[in-house]
Structure to design on (309 residues):
């Protein structure tokens, strides 16, 4: 029974239903869900579509209940066809392997025009047990991380108090004071990274902890719910780091974040300086329950991204 439940949970049944007001954008692929942690797609409005993701089944009276939606623009005259992972461009697959190491492929769609020409791809993966939906061009170039919304928030701000994406309304529900970190975590830093300066801490969705710190560079250190060390990564860009206000990021950087990670939440921003001259910026963001570190140059142009969890 345990094996059967595990199989059911990890199985992806995708649902895509376009209600864009244009007949050429209406298409449906049925599917199911597991619980509030599952992401299902089923409907959209105006120029949006919804793409189903993450598995399992929860039904009431034989009816599948939808939970969370992933939306992106549906251009007039386009439709989607399901495709296998092996049919995706090598560039696309390489991007996923580089930026989501250890991901599990769940579903992909080729977005086609009225003549059947591929205009892009939508790919849904599981990363660290969380669904992530991404959009790519026809040649496999990354475009953006698609926004997730709970069913009742498909229209409107995209979040509600007490909901899965409540942090979009700020203040961050998962931000915790450094003084509130478990003793096991502070002891770990004192023992292993005594020269680190702790900057900010967050609760993870699995009740674990993420701690951002500085020590010649910026680091993200993960701990379990009991304060046991899990992993540590160095975030992009060498040089001297200084915490800055969100608004101090260049407009080009803010524009890139808004376009590439719709409805993202900015957790922390840093300037990167060499000999007193700013050489770039780092933004740590939350986009649909996945955290990213995004690096920019001094003008705010995108340089690199690293997935934290």
């Amino acid at each position: 029974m345990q094996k059967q439940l595990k199989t059911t949970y990890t199985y992806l049944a995708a649902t895509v239903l376009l209600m864009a007001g244009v007949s050429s954008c209406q298409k449906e692929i049925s599917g199911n869900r597991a619980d509030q942690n599952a992401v299902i797609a089923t409907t959209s409005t105006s120029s949006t579509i919804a793409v189903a993701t993450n598995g399992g089944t929860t039904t009431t009276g034989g009816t599948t209940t939808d939970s969370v939606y992933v939306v992106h623009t549906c251009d007039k005259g386009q439709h989607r066809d399901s495709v296998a992972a092996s049919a995706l461009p090598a560039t696309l697959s390489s991007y996923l392997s580089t930026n989501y190491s250890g991901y599990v492929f769940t579903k992909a769609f080729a977005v086609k025009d009225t003549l059947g020409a591929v205009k892009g791809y939508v790919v849904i993966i599981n990363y660290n047990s969380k669904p992530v939906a991404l959009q790519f061009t026809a040649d496999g170039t990354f475009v953006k991380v698609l926004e997730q919304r709970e069913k009742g928030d498909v229209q409107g701000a995209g979040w509600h108090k007490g909901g899965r994406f409540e942090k979009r309304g700020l203040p961050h529900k998962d931000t915790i004071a450094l003084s509130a970190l478990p003793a096991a975590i502070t002891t770990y830093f004192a023992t292993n990274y005594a020269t680190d300066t702790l900057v900010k801490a967050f609760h993870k969705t699995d009740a674990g902890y993420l701690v951002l710190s500085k020590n010649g560079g910026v680091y993200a250190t993960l701990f379990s719910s009991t304060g046991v060390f899990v992993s540590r990564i160095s975030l992009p860009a060498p040089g001297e780091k200084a915490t800055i206000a969100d608004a101090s990021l260049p407009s080009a950087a803010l524009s890139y974040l808004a376009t590439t990670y719709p409805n993202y939440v900015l957790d922390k921003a840093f300037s990167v300086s060499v000999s007193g001259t700013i050489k770039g910026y780092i933004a740590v963001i939350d986009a649909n329950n996945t955290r990213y570190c995004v690096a920019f140059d001094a003008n705010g142009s995108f340089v690199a991204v690293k997935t934290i969890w």
Notes: The chain has two domains: 9-164, 170-309. The longest helix spans residues 90-99. Residues 9-164 form one domain. Residues 1-66 have pLDDT under 50 and may be disordered.
